[in-house]
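Translate sequence into structure tokens.
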Amino acid sequence: VFRCWILYAKSWRVICVPVTFWLASVACSVLESYYAGLYYKGQSHEAVLIAMKATTGLYACNIAITVYTTAAIIYRILSSRRNSGGIHKRLNNAMRILVESGVLYTSMIIFGLVGVMLDARNNSTWVESLIVSISDAMAFSMGGISFNLILIRVYQSRVESRDSFADSSHDYGLPGNSFNNSRITPSSEEPSSNELDETRAL
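Result follows.
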């Protein structure tokens, strides 16, 4: 959401939708924590169903935020690429990095959502409980992994562009001793003594 806000010149109109989903995800997270606590204390047996619904809403909001912001950033990059001149390769690399991280994070969130929906059924078995535990752990850790992946790929692209520029400069540069062989010294341009004698004789 922050990257989308920066790319669109800090326009609040663009990020009003993801901010709304983010507030809804915070509310779902609070509800899930509250009713899960009631269930573990044994105060309410229906609290687990409400907690599952809140978790489902949390995953759905995260999916909506990721899809919206990633699509908005890619659209902004595509719009800028038409007037970018000769930096298409850099913009394409940025789009590829964002798409890879966004797809990776969104797929894990969808996997977590499927696990929660399977576990929310009345006749769920230990298999569904195992799936929701694994998917929840993977979805929780994938946020940091996708963010670090963006940082690593951006730094890698910068290093590759720097190395390619250094290689091109080395290829087009001239060796240092190429000027030594063809250097003309003042003494070599002076006429010899025989030439001076012939000139005086004329």
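Note: The helical segments are 2-7, 16-41, 47-81, 88-119, 126-172, 186-189, 193-201.
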